[in-house]
Amino acid sequence: MAALIKALLQPVAIVWLGLLALCVWQIYKRHYRWAAVPGALFLFVFITGSSPLAGYLLAGLEAPYARTNWDDLPKADAVVVLGGIASGSEYEITGLDFSARADRIMTGVELIRQKKSKVLVVGGGGYLKEGQWRAEADRLRPWMADWELLKGAEVADLGVCGNTREEAEEFGKLVKERDWDTVYLVTSANHMKRAEAVFLSAGISVMPVGCDYMGYPFSGRWRLIPSQDRLVGMRTWLYEKVGWTYYRSKGWIRLEALPKK
User: Fold this and answer.
1) Burial class for 91, CB neighbours closer than 10 Å (0-12, 13-18, 19+)
2) CATH number of 61-257
3) Could you give the C-alpha distances from 168 to 164, 176, 195, 204, in angstroms and in order?
4) What is the pTM of this model?
5) Cross-strand bridge partners of residue 153
6) Which H/E stretch holds residue 239?
7) Taking Cα atoms as reference points, which of 28, 29, 7, 3 lies closest to residue 17?
8) For the packed helices 53-62 and 228-250, what is the interaxial angle rounded to 10 degrees?
């Protein structure tokens, strides 16, 4: 019962039930054409928020990067972790407010702990403070040092970048400067296809390591009440698809630079 009440208190569930009530009311008043509008919206919210559609679409993006065996990963010159991990907060005892993408930094740290590389490069995520953009790496670096997570490994960062393309450009400078050949690219699995394509198009060869799986493995379960999580999953999938098209239009993804499948 508690789970049902919790599900019904979600804003999306309240809107969904409101649409149903409005549709029924219009039918009762015999305004059938008007009833079609809330009825269609009710059905749309149900399909996107209750069906396994979002999970199925996300699983398609994430499946190519899923793995359970990490022992066979070779050593690399560096591990680059894309940004969007955390922001600074004076109200948190750690000084950090981690986002839903915190798996990225955890994965990068674990690769270092497993001696897959001796260099961790923190991506170009940033946060606003007092009207100025600050690099999230400035908060992550002391936290990792205080917790002794990296066992003496070197930590570099990309400053503040506005998007994945800028991160690839800044990282490319480090690759040339340090003469790196093998690099692990760590980001959310649903973002990896676009991120890997951007780095390859910038002339940077990477070995992808996905994390933060939202849809894989695909379960196929339905829910009676639409869920906020599934709508977020649908938004994430749409964001990646639109982002791919936008990056292609800007020339940041070049199909000729990608491996033939």
Assistant:
1) exposed
2) 3.40.50.620
3) 6, 12, 9, 8
4) 0.93
5) none
6) helix 228-250
7) 7
8) 40
